Amino acid sequence: MTLTEENYIKGIYHLGKQGKESVSTNAVAKAMKTKASSATDMIKKLSDKQLVNYVKYQGVSLTAQGQLAAKNIIRKHRLWEVFLVEKLNFTWDEVHDVAEQLEHIKSEKLINELDAFLNFPKYDPHGDPIPDKNGNFNSIDKIILANAELKKIYKCVGVKDTSTDFLRYLDTNKIALGTLFEVIHKEPFDNSLKLMYNNTELVVSQHVAKNIFVSIEL
Amino acid sequence: MTLTEENYIKGIYHLGKQGKESVSTNAVAKAMKTKASSATDMIKKLSDKQLVNYVKYQGVSLTAQGQLAAKNIIRKHRLWEVFLVEKLNFTWDEVHDVAEQLEHIKSEKLINELDAFLNFPKYDPHGDPIPDKNGNFNSIDKIILANAELKKIYKCVGVKDTSTDFLRYLDTNKIALGTLFEVIHKEPFDNSLKLMYNNTELVVSQHVAKNIFVSIEL
DNA sequence: ACTTATTTTTAGACTAATCTAAAAATAAGT
DNA sequence: ACTTATTTTTAGATTAGTCTAAAAATAAGT
Prior knowledge:
Two copies of one chain form a homodimer. Chain A has helices spanning 3-15, 25-31, 36-48, 64-87, 95-102, 108-117, 164-172, 206-209; strands at 52-54, 60-62, 142-144, 153-159, 180-186, 193-197, 200-204, 212-215. By secondary structure, chain A is α+β, with helices and mostly antiparallel strands. Among the domains of chain A are: 3-62, Winged helix-like DNA-binding domain superfamily/Winged helix DNA-binding domain (Arc Repressor Mutant, subunit A); 142-215, Ferrous iron transport protein A (FeoA) (SH3 type barrels, Roll), CATH 2.30.30.90. In chain A, the strands form two sheets. A six-stranded antiparallel beta sheet of chain A has the order 3-8-4-5-6-7. Chain A has a two-stranded antiparallel sheet with strand order 1-2. The structure holds a DNA duplex. Chains A, B: In the presence of manganese, represses expression of mntH and mntS. Up-regulates expression of mntP.
């Protein structure tokens, strides 16, 4: 697989639920920051290689083979992210561009040794699960903070939006993976939340609350 | 610079003495495992970008800019090699292919943090010096083992041939960077050497002796 | 110096990935 | 159901890097 093919496979994976859902050519083109005509060409090529299911005018989804390929790339991406944050002092908003490059390095040994070197991490710095060699991963039970109930304790386990702006916002407000929240007030007018965590209070907008995943375990 | 451009620059650097010497189109083509016509095209392109000095039919050399670019790539290549060997249990004959890919990852922060993480190593696993951010490196005084004198102690500081076959030969004979040698006999007939090291004797051919660098410090 | 051999360059064509513009299919609105 | 709008596909062109085959320049041999 070429670098570009890999990127399309990854894009299709993220667009439909793990690539199982059929997604439109336009959606693919948008995700790949290219034109629909280019997307069509590439989709045909991937179809020839049995990586996607494709019927003209009906959108694409990943075949079993395509899903495995996607998970492999994602495994590499997320392991590199852990490496960058834990070993090379990257912040969680700096890792994406570099991991995007590193995920295409081809070497079985490299990725398995890296996995071991990092102590077989299960989640990346954004809380997303890391697939194992066979493409299996635990998806933990999580909800968006916006749907949390009052008076209960929740743990931050991930973020939905991984844009630099959002991650920087979280950093300045000392919100990180593992942070424990209590929702002490829900404002009915704009659906903003007043949170209590680390012995501080903070009001967050609904927009923010919709982009933080919390576990319902506790 | 594209990946291919980087590879040509690196190739030209290694062919002429750090790219300063003019090398022929054919030599470049051979090093890049491509045809002379392709090499000509690329050389023209690099010339347009001021990375090489090129006069038709007269061969190429690197400009100051080109030399810096080459050293940058080599810096990355060698740092990654150290990482692979020291942290991910690669043997020195396994690192090349992967480092060849990793050297093209673009991120200033990545490479500088990696340098720090590895404790600013000065030499790679084959004994080759690692340039600093500005392209400076120590080239230590070294000679080939074939030119060593009898009854003196030499330290192995590098290898010339880095092929898998040769590195495996060294491994099976327990020759590594830092190994101390004494030449106890030179056979005039075929120029083979009888060595004493680690309390063992070994006869090596001239071919082998020409591919091991030893320091003349001690 | 003149012929032959080698090296290097040019010319034209190919592949992967992209683009624009136009055509075809599907979806939506009344 | 028929027109309009949107989406998707096709057709043809472009760029980076490569190739083969032929032409041009340089080097070598006598």
